[in-house]
Amino acid sequence: MDRFRVDIVNAEKELFSGEATRVIAPLREGEAGFLPGHSPLLAILKAGGVRLQDASGAEQTFYVSGGFVEVQPNHVTVLADAGERAADIDEALAAQAVEDAARHAEEQAGRADYAHAQAELAQATARLHVVRRYRARGHGSSRV
Questions:
Q1: C-alpha–C-alpha distance, residues 6 and 142, integer Å
Q2: How far apart are CA 54 and CA 102, in angstroms?
């Protein structure tokens, strides 16, 4: 068994469905890689990049804001709270979202909404990191 089925979905749509040879996901405990035949696992995702090598050997990258990953020996399912293909992220808009979230978090310091503002900042930062890492690997330009 050198491939397994991978499904990546968010609340709105399917982001990927097909065969892959490996998946790397940002778990709460740290980044983890999965290969065909992996032991069953259910884990919580943190905001970051899910990378997979598809059946053709191409690497595909996705941003997820959190969610769950279920791993079975011949199937990996990523259930993202929110997610998108790295190729679809506008880097300039992602950078602006980080600045906006940082400003909002600063304004909320000491208030009840501070934790929420910090979570928004963490997600915006993770999204920007995903697109920058994707672009650094030679995929696309800085604007899609």
A1: 28
A2: 35
Residue in the structure block whose two tokens are 């397994």 = 4
Which phi and psi angles does 15 have, rounded to 5°? -95, -35
Nearest to 14 by CA among 22, 6, 2: 6
Q: Global pTM?
A: 0.81
pLDDT of amino acid 143 = 39
Pairing, β 4-9 against β 75-80 = parallel
Q: Mean pLDDT per segment of 10 residues, for the chain of length 144 residues?
A: 93 95 96 96 96 94 96 97 92 89 81 78 88 81 40
Q: Which two tokens stand for residue 14?
A: 């399917």
Using alpha carbons, list the distances in angstroms from residue 111 to 65, 103, 106, 107: 24, 14, 10, 9
